[in-house]
Amino acid sequence: MGREVAESCVDTLLTETVSMYCDRFYANKPELAARRIEAIGYQVGHQLSERYTMERPRFNDHLEAIKFICKDFWSEVFKKQIDNLKTNHRGTFVLQDNRFRWLSRVSLDPSSSEKETEDLSSSGESKAAQAVSMYLYFPCGIIRGALSNLGIPCAVSADISNLPACSFVVRVKA
Predict the structure, then answer these.
(1) DSSP assignment, residue 72?
(2) Planar angle of CA 73, 158, 34, nearest 5 degrees
(3) Lowest mean pLDDT segment, chosen from 19-33, 55-69, 86-100, 131-145
(4) Distance linking the first and last C-alpha atoms of the chain
(5) Which DSSP string do the residues of 68-132 spell out, in sequence order?
(6) What is the mean pLDDT of residues 109-130?
(7) Are 96 and 82 in contact (CB under 8 A)?
(8) Rounded to two decimals, what is the model's pTM?
(9) Judging by beta carbons within 10 Å of its beta carbon (0-12, 13-18, 19+), is residue 30 exposed, middle or buried?
């Protein structure tokens, strides 16, 4: 019988981790905070993948491993499957979650978003969008760590189209 942790505990842990790395440890260096949060996610994903594939035979190809991530792995971590999987059959996969749990409680203040839209930061994103994106480095790391454990080196990025919908783009390294 597997051990489970209450969703509220995981949500709080993620919120506090992002807060500590962004506001305290690397307050003036958001790129370092992002790398560290992603590295923590990588370790978590690597270990979870090890646990969830212990009784399974190795996957034959990348698509089979990605399907495992979308169905079984995602179900274990988020209690639902990925809503949509797209691929170009050349090493790029897009995993779409229409109601990503870790973004379902995120809200943007409409008054501050409108003001920030006029005053874009140097990277071209509003401060609100940058803050939300910090919460996505952890699941990107989880996906990258899980795939790395399955023998698939890759880069993972996230795209927020319409909260709480989220797409994760996986680019397999040759």
Answers:
(1) I
(2) 100
(3) 19-33
(4) 38
(5) HIIIIIHHHHHSS--SEEEE-SSSEEEEEETT-GGGTT----HHHHHHHHHS--TTS--HHHHHH
(6) 50
(7) yes
(8) 0.83
(9) middle
